[in-house]
Amino acid sequence: MVEPLLKVEGVRAYYKLGRVFVRAVDGVSFEVNEGEVLGVVGESGCGKSTLSNVLMMNLRKPLVLVEGRVLFKMGNGFLEISSLGREEVKKRLWGKEMAVIPQSAMNALMPTIKVRKYVEHLAESHNIPKEEILEKIRIRFQEVGLDPVWLERYPFEFSGGMRQRAVIAIATLLNPQLLIADEPTSALDVVNQKIFLKVLMQMKKRGIVKSIVFITHDIATLRQMADRMVVMYAGKVVEVSPLEEMLRKPLHPYTKGLLDSVLTPEPEVKDRGITTIPGAPPNLIDPPTGCRFHPRCTYAMKVCREKEPALVEVEKGRKVACFLFTEEIA
Amino acid sequence: MFKVMFKPLLKNRKFLIGFSVFLFFLVLGLFGPIFYRVDPTEMTWNHEKPPSREHPLGTDTYGRDILAQLIHGIRSSLYIGFLSAIISLTIGTFVGTFSAVKRGVVDETLMAITNIVLTTPSILVAILIASYMRVRNVEMVALILGLFQWPWFARAIRAQLMSVMSREYVYLSVMAGYSDLRLIFEDLIPTIATYAFMSFVLFINGGIMGEASLSLIGLGPTQGISLGIMLQWAVLMEAVRRGLWWWFVPPGVSIVAITASLLVISTAMDEVFNPRLREE
Amino acid sequence: MRLVVRNLSKTFSMGFFSRRHVEAVRDVSFEVKGGEIVSLVGESGSGKTTTAKMILRLLPPTRGEILFEGKDVWRDLKEREELREFRRKMHAVFQDPFASYNPFYPVERTLWQAIELLGEDLSKQDKLNLIKESLLRVGLDPKDVLGKYPHQLSGGQKQRIMIARCWILKPLFIVADEPTSMIDASSRGGIIKLLEEMREENGTSIMFITHDLGLAYYVSDRIFVMKDGRIVEEGSPDEIVLSPKHEYTKTLVSSIPKLYKRMEDLV
Hints:
Chain A is built from 13 helices and 12 strands. By secondary structure, chain A is of the alpha/beta class. In chain A, strands 6-7-8-3-9-10-12-11 form an 8-stranded mixed sheet, sandwiched between helices. Chain A is globular. The relative contact order of chain A is 0.13. Chain B is mainly alpha-helical. Chain B has one domain: MetI-like (MetI-like fold, Orthogonal Bundle). Chain B has 11 helices and no strands. The longest helix of chain B is centred in the first third of the chain and has 37 residues, at 66-102. Chain C is an alpha/beta fold. Chain C is 38% helix and 24% strand. Chain C has 10 helices and 10 strands. In chain C, the strands form 2 sheets. Chain C has a 6-stranded mixed sheet, sandwiched between helices. A 4-stranded antiparallel sheet of chain C has the order 2-1-4-5, covered by helices on one side. In chain C, strand 9 and strand 10 form a beta hairpin. Chain C is globular, with a radius of gyration of 19 Å. Chain C starts with a strand and ends in a 12-residue tail after the last helix.
């Protein structure tokens, strides 16, 4: 039986800009199970990066949690981390229970502070003896394929791929249960992307981290590692499915459109052709009524304009928010 | 476009304060002589008198009216500031733009000249030129000042345009068969407009300060009157030691207020036009 | 042969006193036929964009020649009219739809530029009609576009206007420098289709400059793989992707995540 590690329940997180709200995450529910790689996929501006901040409870103005709960498994029960403040979550969970690998490690590391300083800082904030943690990072650096002498270097001396590996080594130093990777490969070339993915999967295989949430716009990358997929569109989750089943038979029309727009160097893609979803993603300040995808959907019905479809389980382990499926059931 | 550019300025409190102070002096300099019709050079027997009904700001050693001097002084100081700023801006824009567009030898020559002017102690050269000319009117002083203020602006413009030149829209204009000149006027100048405007304010500032320093050492305009010249006279007659406050305080306060207001204006513009500095 | 590139090299010199030389493009040669779609594939720093700029006559080469329709673009175009003729026949779509528009002007400026370059004697109304027609042709409603400033349109819309510009000019050759890398996946297909239609209708040759082997594989008749300023392998898309010969191409192909096959050596 799979146990959830993290539960997200009806979360709404908005950016408050003056008098208007940008509804970046708007009523999202899903679980991250123990031992799985969960892929979160969506186009730019669909709220997936905001989601990673919500999972970490890294809420800073103008981003505010309007509604909903985020629960994290601690011992036998669940801790409602959404009721704690950012500082509290930072002190109790960051690094030890959950860690994030941001999009660009360049921004995560100050270029003029030696990598070793970061590690020492980590030791200080968690009251761990410095020597112990330095020994640990040396081993961890070797595991991710970096020479420990690089600990004495400055981040700007690292290449993009090395920097990203240094970040993963530091982020996983305290063996967090959950690792959140937010577009970690988008700034890397394909060869380094693959090396990075390998390191990431190693971390999971060796039990250093239990679960990974991998957020990206690139389905082909998720294809290599994800167990389940969460598809986001305009601040909403439109489909949750195991990866293989989603590839075989996408349920939501948006998922299908997204899959059919993927260009990978494969003969199958050439045979399939490439399709375009008409229109553009909506403005999250004033999203369309009903189903947010209806203006671009070829199957749109009258009900799609009026009512918002709920995310419901239509097959075992597969949820979709679309009237094409729920209307049949009803 | 201009509306979009300047609207946020009018919402910035710093800008409004700085601009009102500057506007006050501008109006005083422009319209003061029309309403206060007293000849600033007319000598009377009422010498070194403190403010009175007859002379609202008192008189100097020769019995000349200080208020009249001040109003005319502000007028010509601002005039020198504007004139030198226009000269600096023109030279700087020309040098910076051509360096960036033509590159190669043109760039290297122009930048060599720029660096020479930049590293020459300008006040020394200004002293040299000024001391060669027996009769100096305000325009000449403005020209001397204008000729030495532009280098930093030219270099900044060049650097900015170099980066603009590698933007795609510049390539697309080149590919549409634009000549260099047309490219400069349609694509390049607009991108440096806000920066040029900001620099213009600083140039005015530099011109007013420059005139005051030249005048203080006796190399200012030999004809007419300016804030610097008022201060020079006050210094010559030891007004400070003798406690004739009404003589040196008004021009001193005016210079400080005008230059400070200009600095505030340019900082405010920097904040508005440069999003990185904008306060959240 | 529409375009012949022979022994093209570009060396950048840096520093004032101690000149350091960077060879961005080394001895590159290839040919492109009329109506052919080719791709120059390489990672950032491979010299592909430098090559494109030299072909577009935006950056002078250090050595080598570029013959377009039999004329050397850097040596034979002396007269102003010859150069305009070249500009009409060879055009480009760039990577960044935001940087492709001067933020000070409405977006249709780029189309007026194209009409002016055409140099045909048309009335203002005819020109406006041509602009509207070109917008409709690329799937945009003139009402949504005309008079708008660049920040008011999406990346996909802006890239379509760039293609409308090409459609007005109907050039013989288009250099498409990463035309889809900065727009959303769901709008990408439309841009590619429009470019393919340009070839169908006018026999335009298109050269994609891209880091995305998936795109190159999908659209091209031939692919050139560039690495460190050299073309290391050239062939049909199937040859390059299914049986690569050069070590670099092999690594590249095996590193790209696929949709229909899971990498076996990942875990």
